[in-house]
Amino acid sequence: MSAIRIAALLLIMAGVLGLGYGSFSYTRETHDVKLGPLELSVKEKETVNVPVWLGVGTIVGGGVLLLYGGRKS
Q1: Distance between CA atoms of 51 and 41, rounded to whole angstroms?
Q2: Domain range summary for the chain, segments of one domain joined by +
Q3: DSSP E strands: which ranges in 1-73?
Q4: Which residue of 15, 35, 42, 63 pairs with 58 in a disulfide if CB–CB is 3.0 to 4.6 A?
Q5: How far apart are alpha carbons 11 and 4 in whole angstroms?
Q6: What is the tens place of the pLDDT at every residue in 24-46?
Q7: With contact defined as beta carbons under 8 Å apart, do 33 and 39 qualify?
Q8: DSSP, res 3
């Protein structure tokens, strides 16, 4: 399997996952305070929404790459 086909399949899978889940979240530490033996940290939960057009565009791009990416002129 060529690298172009692998990239195309990865794009298609990423698009399907983006449409299926719609968003993903992660936690990041924003502030860290150390006062002697006392340590405080603030963690914020961030959510990123994946637009539908991006998921569909990724699937279409992967499909085009899969169909026409390996052809030679």
Answers
A1: 32
A2: 3-68
A3: 23-35, 38-49
A4: 15
A5: 11
A6: 899 988 878 888 888 888 889 99
A7: yes
A8: H
Q: What is the pLDDT of residue 69?
A: 81
CA distance 44 to 35: 21
pTM reported for the whole predicted model: 0.69
Contact 44, 28 (CB under 8 A): yes
Q: What angle in degrees, to the nearest 10, is found between the helix axes of 3-21 and 52-68?
A: 160
pLDDT score of 71 more than 80: no
Distance separating alpha carbons of residues 73 and 33, to the nearest angstrom:
61
Q: Determine whether 4 is exposed, middle or buried from the number of CB atoms within 10 Å of its CB (0-12, 13-18, 19+).
A: middle
Determine the Cα–Cα distance for residues 32 and 28; give it in Å rounded to an integer. 11
Do 23 and 50 touch, CB atoms closer than 8 A? yes
